[in-house]
């Protein structure tokens, strides 16, 4: 599909919007429908589109495999790390109230914890989905 | 009006499901499954389960279709010819379906506020999302999210069931790692984000001991 101008241009125009929408869904999970899982999939689908149009070589050139490997692990580590950070701050594991001292607005700490955790989920899901697609498409 | 839309959607779902079974073209079956997922997403939306609808549309209709089309490269495009009806399997399916339909009679009506699941912890989940000012401690609701977390589904998934979601993420990670171990090519060393495409030194492919530090 490398030589088809219409497909290439459409993909190039669509990709930034897909990525921004994916990030919006990841970070807006506590405010509206969505969350890390859905946003991660949308983010990954932007790269799937790019890979379909430009091929595996170009795709691994902009996002090397090592990056997706590290991102997948970093997402889980971020999630567990938030839990451990709550422990360090004197709460229970994943007890987001311990994240921030805000006695008059405890919801802010919850929202902060959820945002970080959803970011972790989104990183892992996006990286694993890109990996799945590439490994299937490669040979 | 809602009933009519639901009936239409469920009829289309049934037609799509039968078409998936009947078609011999695997490519057609994959696309029909994608249509099935999209219809299902609209059904979830009709039941006001927005998060489920979102997931169904993104995962069921989106990524799954792409992965299944990728799998078709290995399997070929036509289904193998097999006997049309497998009577024991049909019998088991009909019996299970009949048992499920029989069980539906005991379920509460959809959205019934007196249903058991709405009496246990659900009031607490709903109350915590209303602003309470600074009530914490005995007498106050168990949690207090103020106005920060309007989406109750996320409040439950990411906070109450934080362990659950964490290990779900770990499962996804494990799946990715397993695939990499099973069929991934060896990873090249180097920095995580390449600045630009450089011409790799192809002459010495295996000589990594000297350049292992930074690429």
What is the secondary structure topology, with strand pairs?
The complex is a heterodimer of chains A (139) and B (215).
Chain A: H1 5-27, H2 36-62, H3 65-88, H4 106-138
Helix pairs in contact in A: 1-2, 2-4, 3-4
Chain B: H1 2-22, H2 26-46, H3 50-75, H4 87-104, H5 122-128, H6 152-160, H7 162-183
Helix pairs in contact in B: 1-2, 2-3, 6-7
List unreliable stretches of 5+ residues of chain A: none
The pLDDT mean of chain A sits at 88
Reported for the largest beta sheet of chain B, the result is: none
Oligomer: heterodimer
What's the tally of helices of chain B? 7
Structure summary:
Chain A is mainly α and 139 residues long.
Provide structural commentary:
The complex is a heterodimer of chains A (about 140) and B (about 220). Helices cover about 75% and strands about 0% of the residues of chain A. Chain A has helices at about 5-25, 35-60, 65-90, 105-139. Chain A starts with a helix and ends with a helix. The model of chain A has no long low-confidence stretch (mean pLDDT about 90). Chain B has seven helices and no strands. The longest helix of chain B has 26 residues, at about 50-75. Residues about 205-215 of chain B have low confidence and may be disordered. The chains are: A mainly alpha (about 140), B mainly alpha (about 220). At the A-B interface, α2, α3 and α4 of A face α3, α6 and α7 of B.
């Amino acid at each position: 599909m490398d030589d088809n101008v219409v497909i290439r241009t459409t993909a190039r125009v669509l990709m930034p919007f897909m990525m921004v929408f994916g990030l919006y869904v990841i970070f807006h999970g506590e405010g509206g429908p969505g969350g890390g899982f859905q946003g991660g999939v949308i983010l990954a689908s932007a790269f799937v589109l790019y890979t379909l149009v430009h091929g595996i070589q170009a795709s691994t050139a902009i996002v090397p495999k090592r990056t997706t490997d590290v991102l997948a692990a970093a997402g889980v580590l971020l999630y567990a790390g938030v839990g451990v950070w709550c422990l360090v701050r004197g709460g229970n594991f994943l007890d987001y109230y311990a994240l921030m001292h805000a006695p008059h607005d405890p919801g802010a700490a919850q929202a902060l914890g959820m945002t970080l955790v959803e970011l972790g989920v989104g990183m892992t899901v996006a990286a694993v989905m890109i990996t799945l697609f590439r490994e299937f498409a490669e040979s | 009006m809602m009933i009519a839309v639901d009936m239409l959607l469920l009829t289309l779902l049934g037609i799509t499901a039968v078409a998936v079974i009947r078609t011999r073209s695997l490519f057609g079956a994959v696309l029909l499954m994608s249509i099935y997922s999209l219809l299902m997403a609209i059904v979830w939306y009709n039941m006001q389960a927005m998060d489920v609808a979102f997931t169904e549309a993104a995962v069921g209709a989106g990524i799954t279709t792409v992965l299944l089309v990728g799998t078709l490269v290995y399997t070929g495009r036509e289904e193998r010819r097999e006997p049309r009806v497998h009577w024991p399997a049909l019998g088991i399916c009909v019996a299970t379906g009949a048992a499920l339909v029989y069980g539906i009679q005991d379920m509460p009506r959809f959205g019934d506020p007196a249903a058991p699941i709405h009496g246990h912890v659900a009031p607490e989940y709903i109350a915590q999302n209303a602003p309470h000012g600074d009530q914490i401690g005995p007498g106050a609701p168990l949690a207090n999210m103020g106005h920060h977390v309007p989406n109750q589904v996320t409040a439950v998934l990411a906070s109450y069931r934080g362990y659950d979601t964490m290990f779900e993420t770990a499962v996804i990670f494990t799946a990715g790692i397993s695939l990499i171990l099973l069929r991934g090519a060896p990873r090249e060393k180097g920095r995580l984000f390449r600045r630009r495409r450089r011409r790799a030194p192809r002459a010495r492919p295996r000589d990594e001991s000297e350049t292992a530090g930074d690429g």
